[in-house]
UniProtKB/TrEMBL annotation:
<dbReference type="GO" id="GO:0005886">
    <property type="term" value="C:plasma membrane"/>
</dbReference>
<keyword id="KW-0807">Transducer</keyword>
<keyword id="KW-0716">Sensory transduction</keyword>
<dbReference type="Pfam" id="PF02949">
    <property type="entry name" value="7tm_6"/>
</dbReference>
<keyword id="KW-1133">Transmembrane helix</keyword>
<keyword id="KW-0812">Transmembrane</keyword>
<dbReference type="GO" id="GO:0005549">
    <property type="term" value="F:odorant binding"/>
</dbReference>
<dbReference type="GO" id="GO:0004984">
    <property type="term" value="F:olfactory receptor activity"/>
</dbReference>
<keyword id="KW-1003">Cell membrane</keyword>
<feature type="transmembrane region" description="Helical">
    <location>
        <begin position="125"/>
        <end position="147"/>
    </location>
</feature>
<keyword id="KW-0472">Membrane</keyword>
<keyword id="KW-0675">Receptor</keyword>
<keyword id="KW-0552">Olfaction</keyword>
<protein>
    <submittedName>
        <fullName>Uncharacterized protein</fullName>
    </submittedName>
</protein>
<dbReference type="InterPro" id="IPR004117">
    <property type="entry name" value="7tm6_olfct_rcpt"/>
</dbReference>
<feature type="transmembrane region" description="Helical">
    <location>
        <begin position="43"/>
        <end position="69"/>
    </location>
</feature>
<dbReference type="GO" id="GO:0007165">
    <property type="term" value="P:signal transduction"/>
</dbReference>
Length: 226
């Protein structure tokens, strides 16, 4: 509910102020964002983004609440099961049915106790993976975009039909500019490797390989322990 109130406040804030402001401040170089249709496009974009963010956040909260309630009710069922285990007070011999029922309850109880740990571990790694992948992917995408735009300079010069220029100095300058454009502007990580989509796919492949190796070692160790 709080997410919906906050999202509604930000979306309706420009109408409450009575001026052509956006829910979130932004700046576009050499573009007046208060004029139509730029203002309307940016407003709809921010409103949709805010709504999606609100829905995603509420979804995570609902998932967490459902998970907690599932564990609580499982524990209630386990308590009820232990309370209903048949105990014969007039004999010292174990009842096989009661023993089987007790084993099932103990196994169920053990699974429920380990569930929060596995959920926390999965949630932590999922969030870490999404955040890490998103950040690295964003930087690599920006690097690839810069390289693409840098390479397009040579094509733009070539399409001006530079060979038809009669002025020798102008034509020589065009040729030198094309040669200079072969050295692309690029983002690097500490001058060690380029930040582009090729590097991003390499990072994902390497990470997946390490994950597969660690996972196999972990399961082999657990198998040997058992």
């Amino acid at each position: 509910m709080a997410y919906a109130v906050v999202a509604l406040f930000y979306i309706t804030n420009p109408f409450l102020l009575g001026n052509r402001t956006l829910p979130f401040e932004c700046y576009l170089f050499s573009v007046n964002i208060t004029k139509s249709p730029t203002y309307e496009i940016l407003y709809v974009y921010q409103a949709i983004g805010t709504t999606i963010g609100c829905i995603v956040s509420m979804g995570f909260d609902i998932l967490f609440v459902c998970f907690i309630w599932r564990i609580v009710w499982e524990l209630k069922f386990i308590k009820e099961g232990f309370s209903n285990v048949y105990v014969n007070l007039f004999t010292l011999e174990d009842d096989e049915d009661s023993i089987k029922e007790l084993k099932v309850l103990i196994r169920h109880h053990d699974d429920v106790l380990s569930t929060p740990y596995h959920f926390s571990l999965t949630f932590m790694y999922t969030v870490y993976l999404v955040v890490f992948t998103g950040h690295v992917g964003l930087y690599c995408f920006a690097g690839s975009y810069i390289v693409s735009e840098s390479e397009s300079v040579a094509y733009a010069i070539y399409e001006t039909n530079w060979w038809t220029k009669t002025q020798p100095n102008l034509r020589r300058g065009m040729v030198l500019s094309i040669l200079r454009s072969q050295h692309c502007a690029k983002l690097t990580a500490g001058s060690m490797f380029s930040l582009d989509l090729k590097s991003f796919t390499g990072i994902l492949k390497t990470s997946l390989s390490f994950f597969t190796v660690i996972r196999s070692v972990y399961f082999n160790r657990n198998t040997q322990t058992e």
